[in-house]
Amino acid sequence: MQPSAPMRAVPRLHYAWVIVAVTFLVLLVGAGVRATPGVLIVPWEQEFGWSAATIGIAIAINIFLYGMIGPFAVAIIERFGLRASVCGALVILAVGTASTSLMRAPWQMMLLWGIVVGSGSGMVANVLGATVAGRWFGERRGLVIGLLTASSATGQLVFLPLLAGLAVGQGWRTVSLVVAAATLALVPLVLLFLRDRPADLGLPRYGETTLQPTPVLTENPAKRALRGLAMGMRSKDFWLLAGTFFICGASTNGLVGTHLIPACFDHGIPEVTAAGLLALMGICDLVGTTASGWLTDRFDSRKLLAWYYALRGISLIFLPYSFDLNFYGLSLFAVFYGLDWIATVPPTVNLAGKAFGEGNAALMFGWIAAAHQIGAASAAWLAGVVRTGSGTYFEAFVAAGILCLVAAMMALFVGRKPEAEGAMRPLPA
Question: H/E element holding 413?
């Protein structure tokens, strides 16, 4: 353990809430970067003649790397600290998005939007929120995870009307440059206010009175992340949580987040109007996911997950029929679906902590979140293939709804039976 700063009186406003505010902004903007290709599909199709399937490959790579980087991001943060890791990720995102304004060929789109932006965004993903909540909060952790998760999901949606308006009025290259500038502007804020642990300031975690010493970690981040995966693969609960989160990703980021705007365009709804629907989802999600964190501190997480997935499945099956009800039907879908957009994260993190220990919750959630992004990447690509082949997204939306109903049943089996001996042994922190 590393020596900590001397214990000092806890101020009325605990510095943990400053950390939450900075992290909220980082996740909000980072999520907006990830969502940007959703408003650029149509302009790319019109300017370059690229098909939805071709563009879907780049988006799938982005989403896949966003998920796979997560577990390694947790280990990197543990090794090098929050501030340095987050600043590095923001610089990567800014460089990657700015460079996309120069692309001319599909391989450049896959390299920049896929690999570079995907890798940077993986560092500022939901695992960052889980790490902050675990380090800074002894109480109200579910609420904090819900709030930070909501910022991540909301950021994917609330910026879309602005970005869609820029794409229509100023061109898609302006969108890339504006997003890069917004990302780079966060770096000074992170340098000034973000701190690694409360012990660095001589404070206990929020809700506690004992100062926790700062651990000294010298293990290779990749090795630690892979050891976590090896432990998880021996656990039934890990496979159930990863499986439900695979379906979560397929039914949110990969499908609706990527393809709702083109689907609306197919039904004669303008891009800016469709982006407004996603923004409405984002506002509803801020309420729904924050409430989910509050509920997670009080109720059985398994039952919460079952309800969330079942309600999402019903809404997705309704979605193709809502187009016949014009904008009002879509607005109903946006509110109902938005409240449940990513409310699954707080109970999933809670269950991961119970299964693998509080100190390993963020790392193991990183691997579970990787399954989320594999599902999202699969849906982003497959929905594009379905649209290219059949001319409609009907089958994609209904299939995702059915999968969500399956996930609702899977969630009820998490933690039902004892794990095999040794499968749940805590990972050294």
Answer: none
Q: Is the pLDDT of residue 253 over 80?
A: no
Q: Does 4 fall in a domain?
A: no
Provide the token pair at 406: 């399956």
Residues in the chain: 429
The pLDDT tens digits for 288-333 are 888 888 888 888 889 999 999 999 999 999 988 888 776 677 888 8
Domain of 373, CATH number, reads 1.20.1250.20
Token pair in block for residue 145? 């995870």
Which residue range is the domain that position 398 belongs to? 16-208+217-411
Rounded to an integer, what distance in angstroms lies between the CA atom of residue 320 and that of residue 169? 29
Q: What is the pTM of this model?
A: 0.70
Spatial distance between the Cα atoms of 316 and 336, rounded to a whole number of angstroms: 10
With contact defined as beta carbons under 8 Å apart, do 41 and 55 qualify? yes
CA-CA distance, 107 to 86, in Å (whole number)? Answer: 28
Q: What are the structure tokens assigned to 41, written together?
A: 């599909």
Does residue 11 lie in a domain region? no
In a domain, 183, yes or no: yes
Instruction: State the virtual CA torsion across 346, 348, 354, 358 in degrees, nearest 10.
Output: -60
Domain count of the chain? 1
- Residue-wise pLDDT for 400-423, tens only, equals 999 999 999 999 998 776 544 334
Report the C-alpha gap between 350 and 355 in whole angstroms.
9
